Amino acid sequence: MSHAIGIDDVLAARAIIADQVQRTPMLPSPRLSAATGANVFVKYENMQTTGSFKERGALVRLSRLGDDARRRGVVTMSAGNHAQALGIDATIVMPETTPLVKVENTRGFGATVVLHGATLFESAEKAAELVVSEGRTLVHPYDDAHVMAGQGSVALEMLEDTPDLDCMIIPIGGGGLFAGMAVAAKAVRPDITLYGVEAALYPSFVNAIDGGDRSVGGPTLAEGIAVKTVGRLTLPIVRDLAQEILLVDETAIEDGVNAYATLARTMAEGAGAAGLAAMLAYPDRFAGRRVGLVLCGGNIDARLLASIMIRSLERQDRIAHLRITTADRPGLLGVIASLLGSLGANILEVSHGRLFLDVPAKGVSLDVTVETRGADHTAQVFAALEAGGYAPRRIGRRSAT
């Protein structure tokens, strides 16, 4: 097999970044292991200064620039994490949908941010224009041998810390992280099994490898791996070294983000949680195995993280929205609140409606959001309200209203 990089390139890249990036921890996660049925070890690349693995490859690439190229500056396209890793005068073209936290962090490092296009593909076209018009050097976020070699250092560290892994699960966007890690991992442990993970909305490598024509595009929580065009240099490596590429839908990605937050007590962006999402979506593939996960990025908006966690509680039936329409009488709210309290349900929100046309003139519509212990407890709450003559109706996510 002839690939763009080999293990010697990865070792050389590691020497370049040795004193300039974090040696992030690789730790066992008992709670994630219990949730997945596997023996899970997590590489916490969200602890890098920029919040992602990207500074490894970017640093290696920039170290190879000549004096003239450094003086003229660089340009790149990025969904956010690669942008934050650049340390020379840089113009960063980012999709208009890039999360605010990534845009602001990139500006905070002194880069000029240009928001252009809906996807990384359109951003790449704009970056190519700037190469011509401003004489800058393009630093590709994944289809570059130096970048790939830098990312491979992640796998070297993982296998030094946990040498007896059965497999690694690696998120794939353009393929730079997978390619670098795969070359390194297979050189150290030829028997290790490598799985790639793509967002189901962006099955670019799956299409490229099996000749499929699955639709590519759409809004995804995993914008860091939302890539329409696979790398020319990365594709042969992914094709040769990946055991399988797994597709994860948006619900699975949300579950991965939530599991990292609630079980591992750490922050993961959508792309960073893709590996865990695959374990939750395909548990039979990994049951009983020693699995290495790369939490490759933690740059997620706090508001979005909060929304994901609430949505997860709703899916688990630990938050329920109900509507009671009944005769309006003094003390009604107190009676219902007391009943819910006696059942151990926590009231999160209450809304009265007396002026709606679908409510009788002497009636009231009462919308209540409650927190429960799970599906069985929620069913008990509804049964008790039914027995009390209140005829509760489920609203919100689980109904058409």
Features:
17 helices, six-stranded mixed β-sheet, four-stranded parallel β-sheet, 401 residues, alpha/beta
What topology does this entry show?
Blueprint: H1 7-17, E1 26-28, H2 30-36, E2 39-44, H3 54-63, H4 67-72, E3 74-77, H5 81-84, E4 90-94, H6 100-108, E5 112-115, H7 120-134, E6 137-138, H8 145-161, E7 167-171, H9 176-188, E8 193-199, H10 204-210, H11 234-241, E9 244-248, H12 250-263, H13 274-281, H14 283-286, E10 290-295, H15 302-315, E11 319-327, H16 332-342, E12 346-353, E13 363-371, H17 375-387, E14 393-394
Parallel strand pairs: 2-10, 3-4, 3-6, 4-5, 7-8, 7-10, 8-9
Antiparallel strand pairs: 1-2, 11-13, 11-14, 12-13
Helix pairs in contact: 1-3, 1-8, 3-8, 8-9, 9-11, 12-13, 12-15
What do you see in this structure?
The chain contains 17 helices and 14 strands. The protein has 401 residues and is of the alpha/beta class. The strands form three sheets. A six-stranded mixed β-sheet has the order 1-2-10-7-8-9, with helices on both faces. Helix content is 43%, strand content 19%.
Brief rundown of the structure:
By secondary structure, this protein is α/β, with parallel strands linked by helices. It has helices spanning 7-17, 30-36, 54-63, 67-72, 81-84, 100-108, 120-134, 145-161, 176-188, 204-210, 234-241, 250-263, 274-281, 283-286, 302-315, 332-342, 375-387; strands spanning 26-28, 39-44, 74-77, 90-94, 112-115, 137-138, 167-171, 193-199, 244-248, 290-295, 319-327, 346-353, 363-371, 393-394.
